């Protein structure tokens, strides 16, 4: 929830007036993403979706704290029509330009003050095609069912906010849909209310969440709640068309969450679960917080382990910028390697060898993807996991697993960068690992097989 305010251009006025918050957080890959000058604490989204027309009507109530004196502030929102904007109950001027919504309150907001802005908006939310060709944002199936997935920036298509992973916040999301449909989101169910042929489904995420991890699925879901042995609630939602094929693996979630807890430390959220949809709507699985999304063709045990591992690595310990995404994907891939060894007898060092032999993993350094097109490519995953295995070989198993758990504990519900990681590993191990980082994390060329 902490956010670094970037310098804003000063307004040409006298006295102690505030300046506008920055339009972006200068992310190396998406400079405009996120906004400066405030830190969102809580989003309350009240949404109404009509599967027949595809229209979404929303009210976003955003509670934030100013990190500078503010004469105006930005929100990210792609498409949609803004109908009204207030700040602390008073109407505020709002201006749209591209994906930026600029809000100018009647009175400046003082540094340190808490404020509440309410945006009413509506329209047909967009599907975004990313630089790598994958689809995200708001995906609408031919039957009207909707699925919102937002890595890295698709959440901007369906609610206004501070959409950089550095500004995590709590969420309360209520979605009203026609009877016969259900709406599933992150966190725990917080009530259902039927009225006049429509039902409102409320979901609550008390622990901080990055906006790219927010999900919403509208369809004829079958939902079920079970518990892990430790009592954590596991909420699953499955499209009836894929219920039969997915039921066995859905039953494995409690065991995989417990396995993660033994290896990585306390589970970071108040619930776990999954959303399974038919193949085709979305081309990848996504670790959406507490409730990862799986198209049926990606719903296999390895991918499930991967997305569950992201709850610690990515969702609780969140990349400080998109350049640090290898920290999420490297750990989640390494979790797959560990699982393969522990449940299938395939040793981790063989997974390492396989990854080493795969030329795709050598296209660029995991800590430096050349551009946004390459953010989710092989080196970020495979070579990210190789970095972790090299650390393990350098420091030994005992220190390595202390590092894994300590890292998850130290940055729990926070953000961390590659520099934070290398510093933490060196501090915990007492070793100077500069040569390891230079070759495995930042090096462009493949070294000889160790
Ligand atoms: N983070 C997802 C995973 O590894 C992959 C998401 C790919 N997203 C994308 N926009 N290409 O499970
Ligand atoms: Zn992943």
UniProtKB/TrEMBL annotation:
One example GO MF annotation: aminopeptidase activity
Domain of life: Bacteria
Alphabetically ordered keywords of this record: Aminopeptidase, Hydrolase, Metal-binding, Metalloprotease, Protease, Zinc
Name of a matching Pfam family: Peptidase_M1
EC numbers for this chain: 3.4.11.2
SUPFAM superfamilies the UniProt entry points to: Leukotriene A4 hydrolase N-terminal domain (SSF63737), Metalloproteases ('zincins'), catalytic domain (SSF55486)
Designated name of the protein: Aminopeptidase N
Required co-factors: Zn(2+)
Domain Aminopeptidase N-like N-terminal: residue ranges: 42-213
UniProt similarity note: Belongs to the peptidase M1 family.
Enzyme category, top tier: hydrolase
Peptidase M1 membrane alanine aminopeptidase domain mapped to chain residues: 302-440
Catalysis performed (reactions): Release of an N-terminal amino acid, Xaa-|-Yaa- from a peptide, amide or arylamide. Xaa is preferably Ala, but may be most amino acids including Pro (slow action). When a terminal hydrophobic residue is followed by a prolyl residue, the two may be released as an intact Xaa-Pro dipeptide
């Amino acid at each position: 929830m902490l956010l670094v305010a970037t310098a804003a251009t000063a307004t040409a006025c006298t006295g102690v007036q505030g300046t506008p918050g920055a339009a972006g957080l200068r992310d190396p890959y998406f400079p405009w993403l996120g906004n400066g000058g405030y830190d969102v604490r809580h989003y309350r989204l009240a949404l109404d979706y009509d599967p027949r027309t595809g229209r979404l009507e929303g009210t976003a109530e955003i509670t934030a704290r100013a990190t500078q004196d503010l004469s105006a502030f930005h929100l990210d929102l792609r498409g949609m029509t803004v109908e009204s904007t207030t700040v602390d109950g008073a109407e505020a001027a709002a201006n749209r330009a591209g994906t930026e919504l600029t809000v100018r309150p009647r009175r400046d907001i003082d540094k340190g003050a808490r404020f509440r802005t309410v945006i009413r908006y509506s329209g047909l939310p967009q599907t975004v095609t990313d630089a790598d060709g994958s689809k995200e944002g708001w995906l609408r199936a031919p039957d009207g069912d909707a699925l919102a997935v937002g890595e890295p920036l698709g959440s901007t298509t369906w609610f206004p906010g501070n959409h950089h992973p550095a500004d995590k916040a709590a969420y309360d999301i209520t979605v009203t849909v026609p009877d016969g449909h259900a709406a599933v989101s992150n966190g725990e169910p917080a009530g259902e209310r039927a009225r006049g042929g429509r039902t409102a489904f409320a979901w609550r995420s008390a622990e901080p969440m990055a906006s790219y991890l927010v999900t919403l699925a509208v369809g004829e879901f079958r939902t079920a709640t079970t518990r892990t042995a430790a009592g954590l609630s596991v909420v699953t939602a499955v499209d009836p068309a894929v219920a039969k094929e997915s039921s066995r693996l859905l039953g494995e979630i409690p065991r995989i969450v417990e396995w993660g807890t033994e290896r990585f430390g306390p589970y970071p959220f108040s619930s776990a679960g999954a959303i399974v949809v038919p193949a085709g709507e979305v081309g990848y699985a996504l670790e959406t917080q507490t409730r990862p999304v799986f198209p049926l063709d990606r719903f296999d045990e390895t991918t499930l382990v991967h997305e569950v591992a992201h709850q610690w690595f990515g969702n609780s310990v969140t990349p400080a910028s998109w350049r640090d995404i290898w920290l999420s994907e490297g750990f989640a891939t390494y979790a797959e390697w560990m699982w393969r060894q522990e449940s299938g007898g395939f040793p981790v060092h063989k997974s390492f060898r396989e990854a080493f032999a795969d030329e795709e993993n050598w296209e660029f350094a995991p800590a430096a993807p050349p551009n946004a097109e390459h953010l989710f490519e092989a080196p970020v995953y495979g070579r990210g996991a190789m970095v972790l295995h090299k650390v393990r070989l350098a420091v030994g198993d005992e220190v390595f697993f202390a590092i894994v758990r300590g890292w998850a504990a130290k940055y729990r519900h926070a953000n961390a960068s590659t520099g934070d990681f290398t510093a933490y590993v060196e501090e915990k191990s007492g070793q100077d690992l500069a040569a390891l980082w230079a070759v495995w994390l930042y090096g462009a060329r493949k070294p000889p097989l160790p």
